Amino acid sequence: MEVLRSKKGFICDMDGVIYHGNQLLPGVAEFLNWLKENKKNFLFLTNSGQYTPKELQQKLARMGLDVDESHFYTSALATARFLNSQAPGCSAYVMGEHGIQNALYEVGITYNDVDPDYVVVGETSGYSLEMITKAIRLVNAGAKLIGTNYDLTGPTETGIVPACRALLAPIELTTGKQAYYVGKPNPLMMRTGLRMLGVHSDEAAIIGDRMDTDIVAGIESGLDTVLVLSGVTTREDCKNYPYRPRLILNGVGEIVNMSPINV
Length: 263
Description:
Layout: H1 2-5, E1 9-12, E2 19-20, E3 23-24, H2 28-37, E4 41-46, H3 53-62, E5 72-74, H4 75-86, E6 91-95, H5 98-106, E7 110-111, E8 118-121, H6 129-140, E9 144-147, E10 153-156, E11 159-162, H7 164-175, E12 180-181, H8 187-197, E13 204-208, H9 211-221, E14 224-228, E15 247-249, H10 253-257
Helix pairs in contact: 4-5, 6-7
């Protein structure tokens, strides 16, 4: 634990680490205060592409947490950055909320449901057979398939919900085309996160609730790895993977209190 507490920078997932839906998790406020008091560099790096950094800032504010907008980086921003680097001025058919739509618009990528260069899929509450069918036909016509993140499920106050990879599955299976996933554990997103954090990888830790995105991203990027059991992963689940986090905690509050947090 002291090795973790001595790190200069912290990359934190949000869903399942900071909150479930609109419910703040135990110990989070104390952990954030500890980061600020000890002048730690920190970044909320989330695979969710539904919201803009400003909206995430306001969401935490409603929960009583004061965090500057500069501390947020999403898979939507990473996806927009990637597409703009690959094909500036391209167009995309987008299945996703305003977080990804705004991010693409900000870098000059236009919406196109006729002959787009890309089909981009993120989480959306408006998911429908009509949208899937259109995406399938556009991919079969030559559009490249992009997923904002690799999460299969996401936690909410009432249980898990399907996330990006689950929503993409029917398109991949029907077209036979594999999507390129931009979010964690893709090193593209991790490298950008570390640059924003302003520290070297061996001076940073990643805290997440998913073995297949957060923890593997940290291992492959050279960060200290902390799994919290406040999200979708149980201690038993860890045995199914050929790698493991260095620390397993009930929640982020244990970093401050150094005693178990009830979750």
